[in-house]
Amino acid sequence: MSRAFVNEDNAAAQAVQPVERQISVQPNYVTPSGLTQLQAKVAQLQTLLGELNALGELADKQREADLQRDLRYFSQRLQSAQVVTPASSTTKVQIGSRVTFADEHSHEQTVQLVGEDQADAAAGLINWSSPLGRALLGAQLGDEVLWQRPAGDQLIEIIRIQPA
Q1: Residue 117, Cβ neighbours under 10 Å: how many?
Q2: Residues 81-136: pLDDT tens digits?
Q3: Alpha-carbon distance 50 to 60, whole Å?
Q4: pLDDT at 11
Q5: How far apart are the two ends of the chain, measured CA to CA in Å?
Q6: In sequence order, which residues have a C-beta less than 8 Å from that of residue 73 and are 6 or more positions away?
Q7: Among candidates 26, 42, 133, which has minimal Cα distance to 82?
Q8: Confidence class of residue 4 from pLDDT cuts 50, 70 and 90?
Q9: With helix as H, strand as E and coil as C, how does the chain read?
Q10: Per residue in 57-89, pLDDT tens?
Q11: Number of Cβ within a 10 Å radius of residue 20
Q12: Is 0.90 topped by the overall pTM?
């Protein structure tokens, strides 16, 4: 197609629009600290957008579009948040519980079950609806559960449950 038929204003506007973040179909269960994190994230994004808007024409349009997208996402997540009561059981795994389990080689690992937006595997914060989270949720102290992993199923034993 000839360049004469390209509307440069539309092409520039389309380049600025980032891909929308996907909203999970899972219930948006959050721990009390997860709710606080969502509220802080929305406030931070609103502040950043305000600072960009103050720059007027000098504002980075791509950055502004990215921040608006993220604000739409986190605002929706905040609206749909269902705060769970803090985990209190030491015998049954709940959202918010800190769980220590051992594999067949007696290798221990401790994780905490949290909401999707709070999850951070490197910090041991595991989404309750992940394969590991689903295996642990509702299990009781001493139970052996099957963790269905992409690398292969693994039998793990719940050895400690701590309220968070």
Answers
A1: 20
A2: 999 999 999 999 999 999 999 999 999 999 999 999 999 999 999 999 999 999 99
A3: 13
A4: 46
A5: 61
A6: 20, 21, 23
A7: 26
A8: low
A9: CCHHHCCHHHHHHHHHCCCCCCCCCCCCEECHHHHHHHHHHHHHHHHHHHHHHHCHHHCCHHHHHHHHHHHHHHHHHHHHCEECCCCCCCCECCCCCEEEEECCCCCEEEEEEECHHHCEHHHCEEECCCHHHHHHCCCECCCEEEECCCCCCEEEEEEEEECC
A10: 888 899 999 999 999 999 999 999 999 999 999
A11: 9
A12: no
> For the domain with range 98-162, which CATH number is right: 3.10.50.30, 3.40.50.150, 3.30.460.80, 3.40.50.300?
3.10.50.30
Sort 143 into a burial class: Cβ within 10 Å, 0-12 / 13-18 / 19+: middle
Tokens representing residue 146 in the block = 């099957």
The token duo for 39 is 């509220």
Whole-number pLDDT of residue 9: 54
- The tally of CA atoms less than 13 A away on the side-chain side of residue 142 is 1
